[in-house]
Amino acid sequence: MKIKSLLSVLLLFSASSLFAWNNDIIVSTPNTSLLLNAPKGGELKIVYFGEKIDNSEISQIYDSGIASHRAAYPVFGIDCQTEPALSVTHPDGNMSLDLEISDVTTAKETNATITTVTMKDKVYPFIVKINYKAYNNTDIIETWSEITNNEKKPVLLRKFASGYLPIRKGDVWLSHLYGSWADEGRLVQEELTPGMKVIKNKDGVRNSTTDHGEIMFSLDGKPQENSGRVIGAALCWSGNYKLSIDTDNNREHQFMAGINEENSEYKLTSKETFVTPELALTFSNEGLSGVSRNFHRWARVENKLHNGKKLRDILLNSWEGVYFDINEKGMDQMMGDISSMGGELFVMDDGWFGVKYPRKDDRSSLGDWSVDKNKLPNGVPGLVEAAKKHGIKFGIWIEPEMTNTVSELYEKHPDWVIHQSNRPLRTGRGGSQLVLDVSNPKVQDFIFSIVDNLMKENPDLYYIKWDANMSVANWGSSYLTADKQSHLMIDYHRGLRKVLERIRAKYPDLVIQACASGGGRATYGVLPYFDEFWVSDDTDALQRIYMQWGTSYFFPSNAMASHVSAAPNHQTGRIIPIKFRFDVAMTARLGMEIQPKNMTDKEKEFSKKAIEGYKQIRPIVQQGELYRLISPYDKKGVSSLMYTTEDKSQAVFFAYKLEHFCNQSIPRFTMKGLNPDKTYMITEMNVDGKPVFLDGKKIKGSILMNQGVELPLNSEYSSRVLKLTAL
Ligand code: GLA
Known about the structure:
Elements: H1 2-23, E1 24-28, E2 32-37, E3 45-51, H2 58-63, E4 70-71, E5 86-89, E6 99-108, E7 112-121, E8 126-135, E9 140-149, E10 155-168, E11 173-178, E12 186-191, E13 195-200, E14 214-218, E15 230-235, E16 241-247, E17 252-259, E18 266-268, E19 273-275, E20 279-284, H3 287-301, E21 315-317, H4 319-322, H5 328-340, E22 345-348, H6 379-389, E23 393-398, E24 402-404, H7 408-412, E25 433-435, H8 441-457, E26 463-466, H9 488-506, E27 511-514, E28 532-534, H10 541-551, E29 560-565, H11 578-585, E30 589-593, H12 601-623, E31 625-630, E32 638-644, E33 650-657, E34 679-685, E35 698-700, H13 701-706, E36 719-726
Parallel strand pairs: 21-22, 21-30, 22-23, 23-26, 26-27, 27-28, 28-29, 29-30
Antiparallel strand pairs: 1-2, 2-3, 3-4, 5-10, 6-7, 7-8, 8-9, 9-19, 9-20, 10-17, 10-18, 11-12, 11-14, 13-16, 14-15, 15-20, 16-17, 24-25, 31-32, 32-33, 33-36, 34-35, 34-36
Residues 319, 349-350, 362, 397, 467, 469, 515, 517-518, 534, 537 line the site of alpha-D-galactopyranose.
């Protein structure tokens, strides 16, 4: 009797476990796993996300009690006290959804596997597919949904998040970026407390000038750069977004991200499918830096950053050098100067265009992309030729999504701007700037033609700086019908994506920078089409340490345009030595933003050597693994970071003094990412005066990482760059 009951308990146990196993799906990358529970006819649940597990460990996730049992894509209408990912109104007015799983499929791609869970409503012909794309060479899982209306009439989508993730409560901390113009990418770290935390953007055009659509969750208390479990998330959308974390009485924080649904309700017509943007998720147990490396690798290897594996050129941009004062002689002089310092590319910024209304300042001419022959008698072809003569490449600035009230374009097509026909226009920059209605296919064609015409006229044009300097002010489209005005912010960005896809299909090698009043377009929503972005209009090296630190949380160094500019700095007035300015700019894609003819001979000489040095370390910086070491936000008076090659044979280490006092004690610098058993030769770079005592020393990786090195940073704006080569 005893044996019989024991047997039946065992049978029951294995049957229920088997049942669970049969419905459990592991979605894995090389080092991470997402465990889903997907019973046919039942609800899709997220059970686990973290370190990689295999089939044999599934039962242990349940046995240990760590399994979460939360809906993977919560919908509104039935038992819906928590925040929904999806809420709709059916044609009959019913506002509920009740989804059950009808199918689970997997599709293999060369570098990824996509798991698709199809769910249908129990009453309405309404389908929701949830996709999880797991890469096999980077630790990223992308999730997005496809919402199909098979009802006879339109269904109103009121909320349509890309993805959802439960995060076990505990001492969970958030790291995210906020900022403003000239102060983008500021890091904020905070503990999650009860209530709703919402991170959002409503600019319409520039979705990273202030808050960013990417975040990290440190699961083991206060965020650490190189230890602890961290989950990272990045929304791949260029428009308005909303990230929310709801902390209620449930065991998990509930994280959700997607297009900002506010004022963007979407009327899904019969048979139409709404595809949400991807939400990229990652996990690392190597701290915040580990999550950053996962994002960086994905960006480079999977071209989530256009041409991610390509090394970027060293350039001079004309903006801070001459502002709107463009002329042929001046451009030629700047090209000659950057070429003589070893630069590889010159970019002519704003001020080169406008025939009827020449662009003298920011009050006119956007949209009139014909060269001002008074300034440039030989046009753009003349400049491309001049660049060749100087042995460098040529690039140009445009702001294709914009116009001014004072422009030929606006005179011809007043209906092409975002506006409300019965209200006066609100203008932006220069008191006259307006945003074009990119939801309009005619506007899309026009934007494509700007790039196409430039390229047709100048096949050797190498680089375009694509700017966007205004937010949407007059919400209204004369292209969209009255019942679809709320689609504007979605259709604008879908339209933009269409244009960018066309440009990339025709010009895959053209280098394009995303600029939006500085760092307003640091987002994976556009980076698959752009080679880099302008981090900020603030080029002050000290402030850049903070901004670039934050921006590096999610974006790789070769995406981050970082320029050496004048002293005193044009934004802060700070006078910083040329060495410090270079040492900061060299941690990312190096460039210059300065009038070289105003530089001293000594500064020019230093620049030449620094550029030569950057060429040596460029593959390490632009393709290496980033280890952030001492955070400027930790207020230790110094900051440092380093890059190592994947095989750990080479590394570059950077350290900066952030503030200076007598008898100040600064920490020892311990390194990361080296081979503990290899000995490294240390060479100082950008030496200004006497090399540091470490120069020429051979030290083992284990000592460099476990004990560290002492580094004298004895004056204001001291900085050091060390190259490490494994012997
Ligand atoms: C924006 C950009 C700058 C510069 C100007 C030109 O502000 O961020 O880098 O290109 O426009 O008007």
